[in-house]
Amino acid sequence: TEIYYPTIDRPQTRDLRYLFSDGQTFCHDETDLDTSIEPLGGSLGFIVRGQDREGRYSYEKEIISDPHGSCLLQRTKISASPDMLQKLKVYALCSPHLDVGGSNNTGEVMSFSGRDFLVAQRGGMWLAMIATVPFSKASVGYVGVSDGGTDLAEGFQMDWQFDRAPDGNIVLTGEIDLSQTQEFVLGLAFGESLHRAIATLGQSLCFPFSEKRDKFV
């Protein structure tokens, strides 16, 4: 399975990226911000920093893979004024191209132990996504029609919450509420069964990110 990082030109259809919105006046893709990328400690990890061009908020994320499991880990820190933090929400968007294909992917919102997970599968390969901060909203949809990016572009808020999108070119979207914390870890795990993907995700997120990062480097 390939993972495509966002580029600083335009977002690709196969990626994992954030959207930022105040719910009223703007919705920004990561690629709309002033962005820099640098290696993490000389390894194949990366540090990505982004700044709103009007100076209202910024973010920093460290991207690694779990040294002991099939899981991408992304620690993110958001900085903003207290007034902006009351309104700002972050949306994690993932466009899965499982089994090396963009079509015929199926996405679902599933609940385990009281938490909503975003999952996708194609050709016997599964993907599961969750963050250390619970998703306040979660949805799956088709690219350009019912996906989270299309929803947010129309009204700056996540109004659509679809539980399933079968057999298509899909996007998984999770809303992260920053009212409790401005730092979280997003995990994206893979497995040859749903159980394996969920178990790998849980194992990766149960350890402090700093430990995983140091071992990765």
Task: Give a quick set of tags describing it.
single chain; 217 residues; alpha+beta; nine-stranded antiparallel β-sheet; 4 helices
Give the arrangement of secondary structure elements.
Blueprint: E1 16-21, E2 27-29, E3 34-39, E4 46-51, E5 57-65, E6 71-80, H1 82-87, E7 89-94, E8 105-112, E9 115-122, E10 125-131, E11 135-142, H2 148-155, E12 164-168, E13 170-177, E14 183-191, H3 194-205, H4 209-216
Antiparallel strand pairs: 1-2, 1-7, 3-4, 4-5, 5-6, 6-14, 7-13, 8-9, 8-12, 9-10, 10-14, 11-13
Characterization of the model:
- With 217 residues, this protein is an alpha+beta fold.
- The protein is 16% helix and 46% strand.
- A 9-stranded antiparallel sheet has the order 3-4-5-6-14-10-9-8-12. A 5-stranded antiparallel sheet has the order 2-1-7-13-11, covered by helices on one side.
- A hairpin with a 5-residue loop joins strand 1 (16-21) and strand 2 (27-29).
- Residues 1-14 have low confidence and may be disordered.
Brief write-up:
This protein is an alpha+beta fold and 217 residues long.
Helix content: 10-25%
* Arrangement of strands in the largest sheet: 3-4-5-6-14-10-9-8-12
State the distance separating the first and last CA atoms.
22 Å
> What is the typical, i.e. mean, pLDDT?
91
Instruction: Name the beta content range.
Output: over 45%
Structural class: alpha+beta
Round the Cα radius of gyration to an integer and report it: 16 Å
What does the overall shape look like?
globular
Order of helices and strands: EEEEEEHEEEEEHEEEHH
The number of strands is 14
Q: Unreliable stretches, pLDDT < 50, 5 or more residues?
A: 1-14
Largest sheet: 9 strands, antiparallel
Q: If helices are DSSP runs of H or I spanning 4 or more residues, what is the number of helices?
A: 4
